[in-house]
Amino acid sequence: MIVSMSRAHIVARKGDQEQLLDHLGRLGLLHVEPVDPHKAVPEPAMLQEMADLNRAVQILSAIPPKKNGPGTDQRPVDTAREVIRLEAGLREKASRLKALYQQARELALWGNVRRQELLQLKDMGIIVHFFAVPESRIPDIEAECVEVLGVLHGGRRLVAVVRRKGTAVLPEEAELMRIPQQDRPSVLAGAARVDAEIKADSRRLSLLAGQMTALERAQEALAADLEYQIARQSGLVLGDLFAVQGWIPSHQAEGLASGLREVRIPAAVEIRDVRQGEHPPSLIRYPLWARPVKALFDLLGTLPGYREMDLSPFFMAALPLFAAMLIGDAGYGVCITLTTLLFSRQISRRSSKETVRLLAAFGLATLAWGVLTANYFGITPETLARAGGFTEGSRAGAPVDYPALWSGTGGYARIAQVMGRAALLWRPDPEVHRFLILKASLVVGCLHLISAHVRRLLALFPDQRALAELGWIVVLGDMLVLIWYLLFIGANQLPSGVWWVLLGALLLPVWFGRPVKGVGRRAFFGLASSLLPLVSTFSDTMSYLRLFAVGMASYYIAMAFNLLGARIADGATWFAAGPVLVFGHGLNIGLAGIAIFAHGVRLNMLEFSNNAGVEWGGYAYRPFALRNPDFAGDEKS
Asked: pTM above 0.90?
């Protein structure tokens, strides 16, 4: 439910400005709306400090702190800037170290000879020249000293040539190689210095990671200062008066004036209803059972507009079902549920308790759907029947002898019998089973879209536009019949009554969808506004086939990894097949998680929300509140 809001204007003496803001902050009820948004900004220096603190906390969160390290007497913001500086320096030094090691690898051909040593030989009258010579022509070199140093590309060799008297005789293919400007020992020495600096900086960051608590406290204090400054800048000063405006939940608005009188702040308070054209913030009071879906809205940053509808109960009912159909595996459901329970504290700390409950709902729904469809880590009764030899013949791909399986007494048969009893949506014939899940996806999709129009009908009633929603409900049901015949029965057997029902139901949104004055104008605007939604009803219903398609893809991926693991086990051992199975099923669960956002969330946020008329154009109700741990304001939903 979207909480009703009221507009509040408060005018006090300029001298009571700080006291008024302190009281409003302690109440934590007024969503302050700036008189001039351009002025309601904090000082740039404070914003920079907050940015530095945020960046430093982000950096240090990935660094284990050094235990029993010395503290620091510098300000938290100075610590934050040192962390940022060290982290930037580490990235630059790591890049430089990588370049030095690459240079050392390129110089490995020259060995550990130093450039200075070659220059000393030259001063002594011994001049060493280096040539790239084809291996076959090395014997043709005439000099006092000929030494092969290394292998070059193209079948050539690096050769050192020394001749103090006369000129050396070289083959025409010999190419003079210049001495590098830096020798390998010097490069390695530079790399060692950079590596030492990296280690020293890393140790310093580990020490500073021990200051994480102080940095987080500084974050909170600065955030409170920023919020206070914004609230102060949002008001209006006129002579000796200070005025502030904003939004407050209607059921708490009456206590605002009396609260000011109790703390003896002389102020004029005006509370009024929302006017046409105003856009208050959205505050949603979630039903207890639907509260987990708040985690999704917080993650997406979406809220319905103040005049729109709260769809959280519908999302909470549909999203776990969609997740279950997209994943479709009872074994995966157990993994998701157990992982959520085992790491509930960590998930709550990083996100919220609602996230834990939503993930648990996904896991339990997936477990239930997997039981109904007899799918456990890609293993079905058919898999167990083939593993136990319950087939009509020994050839590969032979049909399963299900009567023998259901009456069998072996381990495979017993497990398959238990799976089969609970599998209300599983059929022995794979094609029949696929069509059953396909039909279930369409029925679920149609009911989901119909519920959107039912919700909109209830919101509009008794307005005559509610009759248009009734028409769309009939259109959706008729569209399901149309699709059913096209996919499962045959277009040539489609009853003509389907078209007449569709036409008759469409008259309701045409006539009542845009109730403007004038018969001609009403019919024209109603027809124009109904054509696109009519086409959308077909595409929206067909869009729910993704539940079937992605769920079947997940099953086939699991089955493929099972077959791969079985082949590895036959060729080696099950111990060798274990990592393959763990990786394969882990990857499949990860892909299923992506599918929930790519398809499950989409069906709710787009198809369902469009049919419900919700555009998600709202912004959150964020009351101005002083961050005082000793103060406990009214509970906010």
From this structure: no
